[in-house]
Specification:
This protein has 134 residues and is an alpha/beta fold. The chain contains six helices and five strands. InterPro entries: AMP-dep_synth/lig_dom, ANL_N_sf.
């Protein structure tokens, strides 16, 4: 289990009462639509693409698991605001790996600091980022 600090109970109760928290995992956003929709993902660098959510939702986790990722581990993710970020984020959640998301503008010192703290099992980054394209 990854250590974390819980919200104070009085805040948690208030957020639930106001409907801000529904006690559903984030992956519920995908699974509730997986059989019904083909959501549109759009980025500034790519044309809008229709993605069959059931297909990528079902097929995305196995490649990550083949990398040796296990439930309860962490992955350090540094991707821009592109469709691949969201697909990666939800695929990691689905297999129980905690994504720690670094800003795309973070450089070596920030990534090293994250890595020292969380000891990620995997780094997922954009090969076109200046740190990785040399």
């Amino acid at each position: 289990m990854i250590e974390f600090t819980r919200w104070p109970e009085e805040f948690a109760a208030r957020y639930r009462q106001k409907g801000y928290w529904q006690d559903l995992p984030l992956t519920h956003l995908i699974t509730r639509h997986a059989e019904n929709d083909a959501p549109r993902l759009s980025t500034a660098t790519k044309a809008t693409a229709t993605v069959n959510s059931t297909a990528w939702w079902i097929t995305s986790p196995p490649p990550l698991q083949r990398q040796g990722l296990k439930r309860g581990e962490t992955a350090l993710v540094q991707l821009g605001n592109v469709a691949e970020f969201y697909i990666t984020f939800f695929a990691l959640l689905r297999i129980g790996v905690a994504p720690v998301n670094a800003l795309f503008s973070h450089q070596r010192s920030e990534l090293n600091a994250y890595a020292a703290q969380i000891e990620p099992a995997l780094l997922i980054a954009d090969r076109e980022h200046a740190l990785f394209c040399r």
